[in-house]
Amino acid sequence: MQEGTMHRLWNRIDFAFSSAWQNFWRNAAVSVASVLIVWVVLLALGSLLLVLHSLDQIVAIEKTKASAISVYLADTTPLSSAMDFKLHLEQDPRVTNVAYVSKDQALARFRQLPALDPSVIDTLGTNPLPASLDVTVRDIRDLGAIDQEVRNSPLVDKSPATNYEPNVIDKIILLARVAGIAGLVLIVGLTGLSVFIIMLTIRTAIYLRRKEIEVMKLVGATDWFVRWPFIVEGLIVGVAGAAVAVLIVGFGYRPAVINLQSVLIFVPLAFDPSYLRIVLAAMLGFGLLLGSVGSYLGVRRFLKQ
User: For the domain bounded by 66-165, which CATH number is listed?
Assistant: First the structure.
């Protein structure tokens, strides 16, 4: 009895998938269009998630750096004068720590920047980086005042005097918000379009098989027996579009980060494989969701009980 039930279940599954595959290629033009739309939606979704994650990383790093500035010393500044200036800053109640960074240390830091070609410095034949004092304050609201005070010292280089950039974090956060809103609007619009295209694909498949469906109904086929092939077809569209998008994002993320690091050498971009896996799983799940929703709406509309 149980064996017979399993055999019937397997026959229904086999019928659903084989019919769905036939429907997919019977209406190949619309099916491929549906796959392409799903691919575009998921490619945009994956790219947006990775961009926002990178911006979050930059904001987090900038926040840790927000309470400190580097004061660049003129090359003519003697070490003893630099130490006196360091002591003077340490006595300021607004300052919690002052660290001296020599020219050699600054060069070593510069060489550690991602994707930097060391030969860029070597070709100069000299170290162009100044020594500096890394000043950490108790309250980031004091950075502006301290920046103005150290600029007046004759020991400080004039171009530039410090690395102080007011409101840099606010600008990055604003950029992240704008990118998030614009990306969300784009994804919502493309999602609606993809669901509509999948519905159109299912509608066309139902129309092409309308006589076959009438015969199946006459011989006693249940509504869900008729519906499942079309729902599976929608899932095939979703999975196919998701698979292409996942491959592109999965293999393209690391090279994209490396290329951006070579251009934006002062921006702390990093490859995050653990987050990439989460994004790829989300893309695949969303592709299945798009396919199932689009096919269900198409079936519900045109194969009512």
Answer: 3.30.70.3040
Bridge partners for 135 per DSSP: 69, 98
CB 168 within 8 A of CB 144: no
Q: Report the pLDDT value the prediction gives residue 89, as an integer from 0 to 100.
A: 92
Q: Looking at residues 180-203, what average pLDDT do you find?
A: 80
3-state SS assignment for residue 68: strand
Distances (CA, A) of 270 to 43, 115, 173, 231, 239: 20, 11, 18, 40, 29
Give start-end residues of each CATH 3.30.70.3040 domain in the chain.
Answer: 66-165
Residue spans of alpha helices (H) in 66-102: 79-90
Token duo for residue 246: 């996942």
β-strand partners of 70: 134
Q: Report which DSSP code applies to 268.
A: -
pLDDT digits (tens, 9 = 90+) for 245-297: 999 999 998 888 888 777 776 666 778 889 999 999 999 998 888 888 888 88
Q: Residue 151: pLDDT above 70?
A: yes
pTM above 0.70, yes or no: no
Contacts of 58 (CB under 8 A, 6+ apart): 172, 267, 268, 269
**Helical packing angle, 28-65 and 2-26, nearest 10°:** 90
